[in-house]
Amino acid sequence: MSKDAVTTVPQRIRTVLRDAGWWARDYVYAIRAQARALLGRDAADLLAEGEGTPVVLLPGIYETWRFLEPLARALHERGHPVHVVTELGGNRRPIAESAGRVAALLFSRGLNDVVLVAHSKGGLIGKHVMAFSPAGERVRAMVAVATPFGGSRYSRLMPTPSLRAFASGDATMKALAASGAVNTRIVSVFGPFDPHIPEGSELAGARNVVLAGGGHFRVLADPRVIAEVIRVAE
């Protein structure tokens, strides 16, 4: 065995242990977020007041807006009206259908110069609005956290159609990948390791921000995320 091979083994072990630690903390965060979704009582409409740039929340699959509640409250405290698309429910519907519901909210509430704040699947929904809907003209930019813009190879192993829809060969995913013109209005934020998206979330033409810590859920709590939203909105 060469000297280089010997020296890389400890490094690989450290990387595996690091990723495992991020993964464990990731699911602790996810469990707490789901508990917040079950126990939360404050109405989303209370966040929709403010004079700043309007923000629309787009949670990930199987998530409600409460997954993004800490981020939403921090933005609301800075004077930004934060809008929730309650029609998304638990976000199980196809991307195009969900994008239609987001577009309908932008029109019905007369929202303009909007910043979308999205997690995971929410980023795909947001890009669909920006690329294919007339409502896309109402969107200034989107900050997408841990979004599978290039798909996830794990999706083909998933038991439900809503999860298998993230395969890179899916028709909607291919259409989104081909619509690169809107990428310049997207900030893609992600960690160096994502247990759900081995391909990563880097998006050509977008502003790509790599966080210090990894994970798929816990990265939402990284201060850099809200800093990027504030940079775009203010």
Features:
single chain, 234 residues, alpha/beta, 6-stranded parallel sheet, 7 helices, 6 strands
Structure description:
Helix 3 (95-108) crosses helix 4. The longest helix has 37 residues, at 3-39. It contains seven helices and six strands; from the N terminus they run H-E-H-E-H-E-H-E-H-H-E-E-H. With 234 residues, the chain is α/β, with parallel strands linked by helices. The protein has helices spanning 3-39, 69-77, 95-108, 121-132, 161-164, 171-178, 223-233; strands spanning 55-58, 82-84, 114-119, 139-145, 186-190, 207-210. The model has no long low-confidence stretch (mean pLDDT 89).
How are the SSEs placed, and which strands pair?
Blueprint: H1 3-39, E1 55-58, H2 69-77, E2 82-84, H3 95-108, E3 114-119, H4 121-132, E4 139-145, H5 161-164, H6 171-178, E5 186-190, E6 207-210, H7 223-233
Parallel strand pairs: 1-2, 1-3, 3-4, 4-5, 5-6
Helix pairs in contact: 3-4
